[in-house]
Write a structure and sequence with these properties.
The chain has about 475 residues and is an alpha/beta fold. The chain contains 18 helices and 16 strands. The strands form three sheets. A seven-stranded mixed sheet has the order 1-3-2-4-5-6-7. Helix 2 runs parallel beside helix 18, helix 3 crosses helix 18 and helix 14 packs across helix 17. About 50% of the residues are buried. Uridine-5'-diphosphate (UDP) binds next to helix 3, strand 12, helix 13 and helix 14.
Length: about 475
């Protein structure tokens, strides 16, 4: 096998959800898994995508696969490989389905040539593993072109699209036209939102499943206050001596002990915030659509316009100086840094641009966990978003969240109940006003946070996700 690799997911037990969801909900998931197991009669459910690390899809696969395997299903995960040119084309497709121009290339016949021949080589390797009757869940545009070969080999194919645009435009149309050649024969598809389903597949073949988070992963697991504090002090995000006994340890997903060893690279004018200083936090990749720059400007406006309480802003993302798989990262960070330098010193003294260490994924995750837990307000002022995992992560930690009313975020937050939605995320005046309102009213902030956690418990945890998957796979087996 040159291109295709198997990823091993840690087996996890659904049992841990009982205290959160009750015995009945967990039992329903278990018996659905049992029925599917019987019907598959030794068949395997394969997931195929293009990466085992980085990004929301890989994060979800690790956890969902673990729970499905824990429930007795033979679910496996394969990644495909490809040339730089193949991934340039799939990145272009990714942008197109989001309604963006990306590198503006044409997705013409020569692109089909590269795309199809690369996937043809992967399909040869996949056919040695996948047997007739197996279920294959293909994820995202990178794998869509495998569908015809796998269908011809007798597999039952499902395609899941994790991206989408609320409104169509020329790029969206171009992307779907490209993929139609490979997807038209697929009878079962999954999208994250109704509005992401393209017109040509609004014929009963599409199901809607919203993403979920893993309440027990390193990113989301409960951390007590001393641990939060010592992690944030250790990495340089908070001031002060850490508590007497070092608590910057954590439990890795394979149950071995981990320790936060690295520090964040933080750019700031003055001191790190004290534990008591309320923090406004946005955690995201340094991507123009996450609008870190807008968050900085809106924060600055808030401090200038309102008699703002003592409050600091932390903009945190991956270290752009490390090996980056995000080619736009350094330029976006640079733009935010330039704007920071132009802010009045009184503002700059309250702003922290943090690049988190990424070498150890779980170390990174526990730092994000601690930072989200410590935030007074979490912001996700995205200008475009398929589904914002950071929003759900912060809601699960009972934080009040202010987010752009774009894409899936509109399904995640009910405005004014479980968070605050910014109708126009480019309107910095409104953002500044809302930020001030939440910071000035801790009891309403606490109400928003409590409702947010409850909403995630009801709708955005992995058990719901698995049950929906089970239902769709059941229908696929009926077909
Ligand atoms: N993330 C992280 N470290 C960072 C920045 C982001 O672990 O420095 C995580 C974040 O917690 C979330 C994911 O990356 O789990 C981003 O998913 P989201 O859906 O918010 O945005 P995407 O990056 O997929 O567009």
């Amino acid at each position: 096998m040159d291109l295709v690799h198997e990823v091993h997911a840690q087996i996890r037990s659904l049992e841990r959800f009982v205290p959160l969801l009750g015995e009945a909900a967990v039992d329903e998931a278990r018996s659905l898994a049992h029925r599917l197991h019987e019907r598959l009669a030794g068949g395997v459910i394969w997931n195929v995508n293009s990466t085992a690390v980085g990004g929301g899809v890989a994060e979800m696969l690790h956890s969902l696969l673990g729970y499905a395997r824990g429930a007795g299903l033979d679910v496996r995960w394969l990644t495909i490989g490809g040339s730089l040119e193949f991934f340039r084309i799939t990145k272009r497709l990714h942008h197109a389905l989001h309604g963006e121009r990306g590198d503006g290339s044409l997705l013409d016949e020569s692109a089909h040539e590269v795309y199809a021949s690369n996937l043809g080589r992967n399909a040869l390797e996949l056919r040695e593993l996948i047997r007739p009757g197996d279920v294959v869940l293909l994820h995202d545009p990178q794998t869509a072109g495998l569908a015809p070969t796998l269908l011809a080999a007798g597999a039952r194919v499902l395609w899941r699209c994790h991206i989408g645009a609320d409104e169509t435009n020329d790029d969206v149309e171009l992307g779907w036209r490209f993929l139609a050649r490979y997807l038209d024969g697929v009878g079962c598809m999954i999208f994250s939102r109704e509005s992401y389903v393209p017109a040509r597949y609004r014929d009963g073949r599409a199901s809607i499943i919203q993403p979920s988070i893993d309440a027990f992963s390193t990113k989301n697991v409960e951390l007590d206050e001393p641990t939060v504090r010592s992690i944030l002090v250790h990495v340089g995000l908070l001031e002060g001596p850490p508590p007497a006994s070092p608590r910057y340890t954590f439990v890795r997903s394979d149950d071995t002990p981990g320790r936060v060893e690295r520090s964040a690279d933080v750019i700031r004018l003055g001191r790190a915030p004290a534990w008591e200083t309320p923090l406004v936090v946005q955690v995201s990749r340094w991507d123009p659509l996450k609008d870190m720059l807008g968050v900085l400007r809106g924060f600055s406006l808030m401090v200038q316009n309102h008699a703002a309480p003592e409050v600091d802003l932390v903009l945190a993302g991956p270290n752009v100086r490390a090996v980056a798989d995000d080619p736009e990262g350094p330029a976006v960070f640079e733009a935010v840094y330039r704007d920071f330098l132009e802010q009045p010193p009184a503002i700059r003294a309250h702003v922290h641009l943090a690049m988190l260490p990424t070498a150890d994924v779980e170390e990174n995750a526990v730092i994000v966990n601690a930072l989200q837990r410590h935030a007074a307000v979490v912001v996700q002022k995205s200008l475009h978003e398929g589904f914002g995992l950071t929003v759900t992560e912060a809601m699960w930690k009972a934080r009040p969240v202010i987010a752009g009313a774009v894409g899936g975020i509109q399904d995640q937050i009910e405005d004014g109940v479980s968070g605050v939605l910014l109708r126009d995320p480019t309107d910095l005046g409104t953002f500044a006003g809302e930020l001030h309102r939440i910071l000035a009213d801790p009891s309403s902030a606490a109400r928003l946070g409590a409702a947010a956690r409850e909403r995630v418990r009801e709708r955005f945890l992995g058990v719901r996700h698995l049950v929906q998957y089970g239902a769709v796979i059941g229908r696929l087996l009926d077909a």
